[in-house]
Amino acid sequence: MSKVPYEDSSLVMAIYLGLGYSQFNQQDYMKSRETFEALYNTFPKDERCAVPTLFYAGMSYYNLEYYANAIESWEKLISGFPLAKKSAEAGFRAGDTYFKALEYEKARSLFRWVVENHPDDDYARSSQLAIAQSYYNQKNYDEAIREFQKFLDLFPTVEEANAARKGMEMCYYQKGLESTEAMQYFVERFPQSELAADGQYQIAQKYFDDKKYKEAMDEFIKVVVNFPSSSYAPDALLLAGECAVNIEDWQKATELYERYLSYFPKGKEKDAVYFNLGSSYFNLKEYGNALKNFQVVIDSFPSSQYLSNAQHNVDVCKKYLGEPGSATTETEIPKTEVTQDSLKGKK
């Protein structure tokens, strides 16, 4: 049909568009590009022809990996026919091409054009989300939060709203990595987040590293109370116990170590917990309870690094209880009778 002369321009357009579409669908992108561009050059002012030919010429270039040419075709489309429905997709695809090339300023310019000129189009939603993501990728979290919030204001009920909320959550989490106050805000605002336990743990860890043991203990306990099923809970409870030891709150230390044994009977640090529990009881002068826990280390953990200290401490406890032990004279009992081995903080 394309070889037969026709005076009806509509028929000519239809024939060549059909030819271009067929070539494009067969992935013969070089031929389809030639067909679409020839047709556009013939009818550059006719929207019925110019819009699809510019769009699919851009798609042909894109599939040929001639990205600059693809963007040029799409930008020519949105410049010449800004209100055409296909211009929304062209604007998004041009922006997305810049986005993938990490040229975020150019990408955002095109995405904003789509949002402003085609607010009811599906590509407006994708564009607004991409604007926010571009700021996130540049670690400009405040701007990203603003754009994610704009998405939620514009499109509160669409399916992509969950992605916007998740993106905003990640922004607050990343800000939290920079300061304790920001992380506290993140945990308070997103208590159901999968990252909330991690955030709460990091708050506690920061206090611990700064040797603010009372504050660290309270924050570690929040991990256990608010996120009991998280992977952070066992270590958090151990470190809460260590904080209590560091401030010599022996009663609190015994409570926390007892709680660990109750909550996590298969915990990987049980030998250390029994040893530190015995040490804490010893400092409370509850020598019977101290001896019992040191004995557990000896009986149940023969390969424990705490074994020799536990054996020594059993003898010391027996002395205080008036029972016979291996220590036969006063001088054999060291001045520091019970060693409180601390657990290392999780980095």
Key traits:
347 residues; mainly alpha; Serine Threonine Protein Phosphatase 5, Tetratricopeptide repeat; 17 helices; 0% strand; rod-shaped; disordered C terminus
Brief digest:
The protein is mainly alpha-helical and 347 residues long.
Radius of gyration over all CA atoms, rounded:
35 Å
> What fraction, in percent, of the residue positions are helical?
over 70%
Distance between the termini: 73 Å
CATH topology of the domain at 1-81: Serine Threonine Protein Phosphatase 5, Tetratricopeptide repeat
Please trace the helix and strand order, writing H or E for each element: HHHHHHHHHHHHHHHHH
Number of helices: 17
Summarize the structure in words:
This protein has 347 residues and is mainly α. Among the domains are: 1-81, Alpha Horseshoe (Serine Threonine Protein Phosphatase 5, Tetratricopeptide repeat); 194-266, Alpha Horseshoe (Serine Threonine Protein Phosphatase 5, Tetratricopeptide repeat); 269-347, no CATH class. Helices cover 71% and strands 0% of the residues. It is rod-shaped.
SSE topology sketch:
Layout: H1 9-25, H2 29-42, H3 47-63, H4 67-80, H5 85-100, H6 104-117, H7 122-137, H8 141-154, H9 161-176, H10 180-189, H11 196-209, H12 213-226, H13 233-246, H14 250-263, H15 270-283, H16 287-300, H17 307-321
Helix pairs in contact: 1-2, 1-3, 2-3, 3-4, 4-5, 5-6, 5-7, 6-7, 7-8, 7-9, 8-9, 9-10, 10-11, 11-12, 12-13, 13-14, 14-15, 15-16, 16-17
